[in-house]
Design a protein that fits this description.
Elements: E1 9-13, H1 24-35, E2 39-43, H2 46-58, H3 64-74
Parallel strand pairs: 1-2
């Protein structure tokens, strides 16, 4: 989506407690969007989304580096050794 400020918005929604199930391609996609000054994150609850967005908005609008650094710090790392083929998209 696009925020009313014109900033692109990309949110990966996970089931509660499943933040660590981010796939390598998802991680790459979100970090790439952040590097282009979009708002991108991974959440497993409305509260997490509210917290991340609230903190993001408190950072000066023109301080792109600080915004990027914060959002990148909120993206979970892909578990070591996982590859795209390790994810069965037919699982619940």
């Amino acid at each position: 989506g696009v925020h009313e400020s014109g900033v692109g918005v990309f949110i990966e929604f996970k089931a509660p407690g499943k933040l660590s199930t981010i796939r390598p391609a998802q991680h790459h996609f979100l970090t790439d969007k952040i590097k282009f000054n979009a708002f991108a994150c991974v959440v497993d609850s409305v509260e997490r989304l509210q917290e991340i967005f609230s903190t993001y908005r408190r950072i000066d609008f023109n301080d792109y580096q600080a915004k990027q650094k914060y959002l990148l710090s909120m993206i979970p790392n892909v578990r070591s050794g996982l590859r795209e083929k390790d994810f069965d998209l037919t699982d619940d």
